[in-house]
Structure formats: structure tokens, C-alpha cells
Amino acid sequence: MKNMNKRDLSITADPPAKKDRSGHQPIFVIQKHDSSSLHYDFRLEIDGVLVSWAVPKGPSTDPREKRLAIMTEDHPLEYANFEGVIPDDEYGAGTVLIWDRGFYRILRTGGDDRQSIGQALDQGLLTVWLEGEKLRGGYALTRTTNRSKKDWLLIKMKDKEADARRNPVSTRSESIKTGRTIEEIAAEQISAD
Ligand code: MN
After folding, report:
1. Closest Cα to residue 57, out of 43, 38, 72, 44?
2. CA 117 to chain centre
């Protein structure tokens, strides 16, 4: 954790322009997933796929909160629209709710401006600006150790969107797509079967 403290996660300047050089705005999605254990799948569109982390406690808007984010396998881009029930015999069995969704852009907090997203992932530090309905502002993803390449931390950066009093994981549990709770999604699926 020593290295973490040396990294300045505050943002003083406005985030860069909305679109990347190609004019494409990549998306992010956070899917609440009631599987063998409840977690939030944080996914960023990178090179045509959804690079993904499972966040057991979900994202925080408080920069003092460090949320474990376990890197999982990439998902197809279309999966960003999925909300519903995954059958028991399939991978990820359980109920999925689209908790937040929107666009994001890469931030820079020092280092090499020309660094690609791939290099940032390799080096274990990625900072993004989210434009969602529930989450906005800068978030840092930092890998915790070199021994396990799967354990990262998701941390709210210090900017005007940071708010220690907000707790959208508990106060905004509904789907941004349908307004349903995870219990409602699960129940509706059962009655439709
Ligand atoms: Mn999941």
C-alpha cells in the first residue's frame, strides 16, 4: 500500500475533452450482480470489449473509501445492456441489474501523457472520469500488488463530485434502465417462466 500514498489522486484541472481522438465516446456500466455473493461488476469499454472488475462493496463517492475490485474476464460490449436472470446452470448464475451506465474518459494524473490504456492497465494505474446517472467524476483503479494481478482498488478521486455523505449503493439501489430493484427483477423472471 506504500505506493498508493505517493500517488496524488486529486484533480485540479477540468477533465479533458469528451471524445477521444477518433471521436468515439467509450461507455462504462456497473451491473449489480446477485450471484453466489452480491457484488457490482464495474466495466469499461476498452478496445471493443468490456474490461471488468467485480467490486464486492460497490463503488463509493467518498475518496477515503478504498473498494476492493477483483479483475474478471472481459465481457462482450453488448453485455452492457443485459439486465435479468442468468439460469442456475450458466456462468454467473443469478440476477443482474444495470445499476449505472454512461460515458467515461481517461484522465491523466501525471506520468506519460502518451501512455495507452493498455499500458496503464499493465502498470496497474488507470484513472477515469465517469459521466453516469449515479456516479460522476474521477475514479482511480490501482492494482494492489504485483503478486496477484487480479486485486485492484477502486477509489473516488478528490474532485467536485466527491461527497462523503452520499452513499448511492444503499440509497439508489434501483436499475437506471427499468427502475426495478434486484428483488423485483428476480421475482418478475420467476413469474414469467
Ligand atoms: Mn458478476
Report:
1. 38
2. 15
Tell me the per-residue pLDDT of 44-87, one tens digit each, with 9 for 90 and over: 999 999 999 999 999 999 999 999 999 999 999 999 999 999 99
Centroid of ligand 1 to alpha carbon of 2 (angstroms)? 29
CA 180 to each of CA 48, 98, 167: distance values in angstroms, whole numbers, following the listed order: 28, 9, 18
Q: Which set of grid coordinates corresponds to residue 159?
A: 474532485
For ligand 1, the distance from its centroid to the CA atom of residue 174, given in whole angstroms, is 17
**Beta 94-106 vs 27-34: how paired, if at all?**
antiparallel
Say how many Å lie between the CA of residue 35 and the centre of ligand 1: 7
Q: Tens digit of pLDDT for each residue in 32-47?
A: 999 999 999 999 999 9
User: What residue ranges in 4-150 does DSSP mark as E strands?
Assistant: 27-34, 38-46, 49-55, 66-76, 84-86, 94-106, 125-131, 136-143
Q: What is the pTM of this model?
A: 0.86
Note whether 89 and 59 are within 8 A (CB).
no
pLDDT digits over 140-163, tens only?
999 997 666 799 999 999 999 999
Distance from residue 97's CA to the centre of ligand 1 (Å):
10
CA of 162 to the centre of ligand 1 (A): 26
